[in-house]
Task: structure prediction
Amino acid sequence: MSIDALKDRIPDYAKDLRLNLGSLASDISLTPQQLGGTFVASALAARNDDVTREIVAQFRDVLSEQALTAAQSANAIMGMNNIYYRFVHMAGGEYAKMPAQLRMSVIGNPGVDKADFELWCLAVSIINGCDLCVTSHEKIVRDALGAAAVQTAARIAATVHAVAVTLQGADALQG
Result:
């Protein structure tokens, strides 16, 4: 199973997603690990089991066990941080000055290159819609990898999320 299996399931009314998914899966602006990890972290954040399975199958050969675990960790830690920091941003006031008091040591020691992990955190934060986290991770990724890497992560996150919701909707209409 693979990206091709996902492309085969995308309805004709969403053929642009099929084309975007195909071109992004062969993108050369990121290293194979960066590309695979961004896809995996995005799929996990998009919360569609079929999409996650197919994307992991596609990139399993280019990701070490440490990189696959780090992509999962990026999704997990951003799942918490995106909610907390979105609250801080929305509520305003004194909360921004208070320590989060949430354990997040994986950010300091993710098991892969820090820039790769930050790229994956950015993709998850884009999907989860946390302004503070997107701003923070975008700056780190831009400084380390450049603006093109930021844009590629955003394009992957947007496309993977759109594929996930499109397939979920198509399945719901058939069932």
Q: What stands out?
A: The CA atoms of residues 22 and 147 lie 22 Å apart. Residues 3-98+107-174 form a domain with the AhpD-like fold (CATH 1.20.1290.10).
